[in-house]
Every structure is written in C-alpha cells, then in structure tokens.
Amino acid sequence: MSAVMDSHTMLPGFSDPGRDSQKLFRILMDAIARPGVIADVPHGPDAPGKLSSAAAAIALSLFDFETRVWLDDAVGTDTLAGWLRFHCGCPLTTNPAEAHFAIVADIASAPPLSAFMQGEPRYPDQSTTIIFDLPALSGGIAVELDGPGIRTPITIAPVGPTAEFWASAQDNHEQFQCGVDMIFTSGARLLGLPRSSNITLKEG
What we know:
By secondary structure, this protein is α/β, with parallel strands linked by helices. The chain contains 5 helices and 11 strands, in the order ααβαβαββββββαβββ. β9 (181-186) and β10 (189-193) form a beta hairpin.
C-alpha cells in the first residue's frame, strides 16, 4: 500500500455516514434556497491538506462514482485525490467543462466561470457546482444579492473574490437557467450562491 493510500485512509470521513450526510444535504439545500445566509456545518470531517471541514463535508455528501470532480492546484494534491477516491469513489477530471463539481481555493488562478459545464436549456441541471474554499466568509469585497429566496437584499463579502470575479458571477446569473451554481466555504461554515441570484457590487 502506498504512502498516499496510508495517509488518506488514516483520515476518516463522517463518523455516521448515513446520518451526517443527510444532515449536510439539508444544510446545503437550505443554503441554496436562502442565498447569502451563512450556515454552520457541525461535525465536519478532517480532510488532507488545506481543504476546510465544510468543503470536505460537501464532498462526502454529494460526490460519488457518477460525479466527475475538478480540483484546482491549490487543493488538488495526490493525497486529497486519494482521500476523495477512497471515501467518495468519484472520478477526477482535468477538464473543467466536464466537471459536475469543482473545488477552487485560489480564485486568482482559477478558470473563468464560463469554462465550467454550463448546462443547456433542456437540461440546465447538467452544469458544474463550484465550491470556493476561502480564508473567510466576511471581510472581502461586498456585494448585494437579490432574487429568488431573498426577501430583502442581503450583503455578502467573502474573502478572495475580486470585483472582476463578481462581474463574471453576474454574467453567469444573466444566462439563467443555464450557468454554474456556487457554494462558498471557510472552516466549518458555508453559504450558497445559486445562478438565480442577482449580484450588485456595493460601492465603497
């Protein structure tokens, strides 16, 4: 058995896979239904490398043998790839346009949102969900969200996205129902940003 196999098998997934996965799935569905609202992820697993417990919990809940996963260079180590294959059975791809899910930790060097699978009018669900694993979910450039699931406009300011990124995220929204969905994670917290949300950069 290789050193990579030894290291990732020593890091467990969920302590109760069935129950913990169901809990995380409910948290995720609520986050997508209520864009911009930060949620806590209890009992998230430890993953190899720099991956947060929230991002690791999403992987264990959503990735499987039918979902192709793209990893950026900031998280895409052999050790993490082995951990994902062992716990999720998911195939990895180097082509973002083929990915059902992606994990991005370095937004500055990531492909544009348009490079990922966009879906099509008949099958808008055949698109990439991108997990942006960030230093923090507050303290960055502020944007205002409105749209479905948002009663009054809500402000988010995750650390990492630039003004140019937010402009591309708005372009992504404008091709709704196609486009990518996004989840921002940091530590044991997450927030959802579906393609249905309108994004306005806040001045100042």
